[in-house]
Amino acid sequence: MKPSMAPRPLAAYHRRIHRNVFIYLVILVSLIGAMAWAEQWGLSRNLIGPIFLFSTVMIYALIGISSRTTDEDEYYVAGRRIPAMYNGMATAADWMSAASFISLAGALYLQGFSGSGQQPGGLAYVMGWTGGFCLVALLIAPHLRAMKLYTLPDYFDQRYGGRWPRILAALASVLCSFTYVVAQIYGIGLIASRLTGVQFEIGILLGLGGVLLCSFLGGMRAITWTQVAQYIMLLLAFMIPVSWLAYKQLGTPLAPLAYGQQLAQIEAIEQKLINDPAEIEVRQAFARRAQVYEDRLKNVDASMVILRQELEEKIRMLKSQSADYAAIAQARRELLAVPRDASTAREQWTRAMHDNRERSKPLGGMPPHTQAYAGNPEGSPKEVKLFNESRLNFLALVFCLMMGTAGLPHLLTRFYTVPSVAEARTSVAWSLFFIGLLYLSVPALAVLVKFEVLNNLVGSSFEDLPSWMAQWARLDSGLLEFSDVNGDRILQLGELKLGADMVMLATPEMGGMPFVVSGLVAAGGLAAALSTADGLLLTISNALVHDIGPGRERKPKSSEGRVILSKFALLAVAMLAAVVAAFKPAEILALVSTSFSLAAAAFFPGMVLGMVWRKVHRPAVVAGMLAGLGVTLYYMVINAPGFRYFMGLPANEGLWFGIQPLSAGVFGVPVGFLVMALLTCLLPSSWVTPRVAPAPPTSKVQSEYPGL
Q1: Any idea which of 150-154, 382-386, 623-627 has the lowest mean pLDDT?
Q2: Is the pTM of this model over 0.90?
Q3: Is residue 494 in some structural domain?
Q4: Helix, strand or coil, per DSSP, at residue 466
Q5: How many structural domains are present in the chain?
Q6: What pLDDT does 602 receive?
Q7: H or E element at residue 453
Q8: Structural domain boundaries, residue 484
């Protein structure tokens, strides 16, 4: 609390906040109840989803509009007067992005607890992201709050002086935040298109309107209070279906405490499916398909000619036999799908070959859910290598997520908004509490959904499959794909391919819940994506205008002018991110993991060394940031499948120690520390002196904040 803020006005401010949050809770519960009642009375599902999404987005927009401001302190750091509990709630919403809400349970479903040699496993995300907040609490948040800054690049400017540390930090903020925000907008488009029936690209634009309404007018003040509302929404949206599913299967809604009972049953079903003759038929069919693609790749040009001739002959035969029009249309679609040039054919057929090889493995390519690591430390050399790679990838991803959490610009900016250093520490504790409420339930949800699929869906007749499967498959075959590979009209596990991005969103339909729960889950996913996108877009626009932008002499003189400039930068970045997201560049979780590796390599070494070692100077931190970020980007690019294909390099042969490129920060962070330490020791500190010394939590700070 600032000395100028009397206790009584502060108490009245807190009472007003509590009252507003209570009013929001009443409105939200009333909306859910009204939609459930309307569904019972026959309201169409085609209306429930759009009404849910429109209503919640309008609530966030009203909060954003009511928080509009042109004051610089309010726009950038919400006036530094957000109570610790609500800042923790807003941080949790900022944190529970589309990756956590939509994709994390799907990653655990597909990869098990520790994954395979090439997939790190879903539990690494839970451990890495949660552990990262311990680093934030111990090393980062109190120190940054004591310095009373606006953005993370401000820290590099204040600590090291000069223009280059600030510019590099700002450019790195833009890079990792833009990667992150593309994933959020992709999730927004996915949810909006599924529930409203519009095209994916239109869904992106609809969701983007909600993002801009929340963040454009009020900056950090508007974002903070919309994130509080969004956290409440996503908490209800996550806990209701997982508790429902737990009660249905186990007789108790306490999923985190009871889901272990299902692990033994899942293990027994998996073992049965591995030895099932029908599953073996399916695996053999996929192996044959993989061999077909491998044969085509031996002579791509000749294979394209032969394939076209075969399909043209097939169409002629179908016409001569007066075959069904659907069969002829399918053959024509296959003919049109034949690549037009050898380069495209090679890329498509290589991808198809790897995909079919993966699905020719037991359990459709998924590892057994409860295995410790892939491979066998006492088996053949190949199994030992797979075991070591699996363990290394798991640990590398945990490392990158922890360091990245402690370096994410949009997350650290949240701790500038609290009144004091002590409140910053308390805010981190509240953040961990609110995040833990959901993260403890994520592994439970993955197990319950897997049991539902293995026990109730696999083995069903194709004629009896639920309608929601066809709806998801039509939306995007990458989310759900199923076909009768062995022709027995019974769904085998190998014939079903689920994408990580749809497991959570389809949970209510898998569990047979009312459609209003599906609408609630979609609204929760939208809230998660919107809350994170708001903070990310504000971070990018602030980096472009406040930290880079025109020189100080050419910037608007008034705070209102600078805020307006930031708003237009935010609008431009949002539109660019929407264009990139429309191309569906990668799965949500992969994009987010990439962002964490970039943030870890760019920020963590410079921040930590700057806080604990006063001798670190400007040339050392500039060289360290460039080296760490350069190594990380190099490793990501050189091991990207598209780049290796374009350069004619063999797949998966450029990996260091078998570590996947999404964990590239495990190399960049040590390089950054090493370069900074070496240059600090080798170059005289008299070369450059920090322009402004950092303000650690000393007696000066304690005099301003007596509670410390």
Answers
A1: 150-154
A2: no
A3: yes
A4: coil
A5: 2
A6: 93
A7: none
A8: 448-510
